[in-house]
Amino acid sequence: MKISKWCLLLLAGVSAMAQAADRNDIPSCYDYAKLSQYRPANSGRELVVIIDQTVKVPLQIKNTSWQQIMRFSQPGDHVVLYQFSALLQNNFMQRLFDGRLEPLLTDKKIRDNQGMESLKNLDKCLSEQKQYFASAMGGLMSKSFAEKGDNIAKSEILDSLKRISHDLEQDENASRTLFLISDMLENSAFDSFYRNNALRLLSPEKALQQVKQQNLLADFAGAKVFVAGAGLIDTDAKNNYRSGKIIQQLEIFWRDYFTASNAELVSFGAPALNVDLQ
Questions:
Q1: Where in 34-171 does DSSP place strands (E)?
Q2: What are the Cα distances from residue 268, in Å, to 14, 91, 216, 277?
Q3: How close are the terminal C-alpha atoms of the chain, in Å?
Q4: How far is CA 210 from each of CA 165, 176, 206, 216, rounded to the nearest angstrom?
Q5: Residue 247: in which H helix or E strand, if any?
Q6: Kindly report the CA angle at 5 between 33 and 142, in degrees rounded to 5?
Q7: What's the predicted TM-score (pTM) here?
Q8: Which of 208, 209, 220 lies closest to 257 in space, CA to CA?
Q9: 36/83 Cα distance (integer angstroms)
Q10: Distance in angstroms (rounded) separating the CA atoms of residues 228 and 81
């Protein structure tokens, strides 16, 4: 469907609106149609997408991850996109997108009391809002993944997750889903899941105890967690074999970590996520 000229002009206001205190990177169709007072309540659902920039993700997983997000996201949802990396000059944790898809106006009593032109503008804008969201998310995601030639040796997953949990609003009434696209292989001053340039067999209990001692647990407010890309192998790397036992121990560690961080690891895609976000 072709996006109308007036909607493109409306959506061009994203940069200015993102500066506001209550950030929303999706301009409001209700404000545009001058029907702000009739905006229904949001869905109460929140999707937090987190991309690990240190990982070279295959095109298939990039595409299926974007499709997962599009299937999940519905009118009234809050969607946030983070990118993280090692702390380098041009690579660091950022909130790249923070937007709210608006609920549809379905109340017949309210609709019957509005002008036809206002309702027409509102309905058209809302129908195109998801297209805008899909385009914006797709563009930002494509720029967030590591590209061929990128070589970021360190991966600050644990510290980044803690910082992201602090950055998120702690809304106990929200239904939060975390979608983490990462190899889940910590390689930092806190800990390294490697030994002699190869992935080591973790002791989940010892690794979690070390996380606790270093105050690296987070609080994700009861979120459901889905992972894509776990254990991904860089085809240019030496010693890039991942045994089933190593991946199993890796999953146990992260399951325990998320439980201790007030979240539930629902699915651990190693590397493909084969269930739908929920």
A1: 45-52, 78-84, 94-100
A2: 34, 26, 21, 12
A3: 27
A4: 19, 27, 6, 9
A5: helix 244-260
A6: 100
A7: 0.89
A8: 208
A9: 32
A10: 15
Residue recorded with tokens 């201790």? 260
Residue 190 contacts residue 144 (beta carbons within 8 Å): no
Among residues 51, 40, 66, the alpha carbon closest in space to that of 157 is found at 51
Q: Which amino acid is at 156?
A: E
Residue 256: CB partners within 8 Å, gap ≥ 6?
A: 204, 205, 208
Q: Tell me what pLDDT residue 233 has.
A: 78
- β-bridge pairing 94-100 and 78-84: antiparallel
- With the C-alpha atoms ordered 17, 94, 211, 180, is the resulting torsion angle positive or negative? positive
Structure tokens at 152: 């970021």
Predicted confidence at residue 235, as pLDDT, reads 59
Q: What is the pLDDT of residues 240-275, one digit of tens each?
A: 667 889 999 999 999 999 999 999 999 999 999 999
Q: DSSP 3-state assignment of 78? A: strand
Are residues 268 and 248 in contact, defined by beta-carbon separation less than 8 angstroms? no
CA–CA separation, 17 and 89 (whole Å): 27
| Neighbour tally for 243: CB within 10 Å | 11
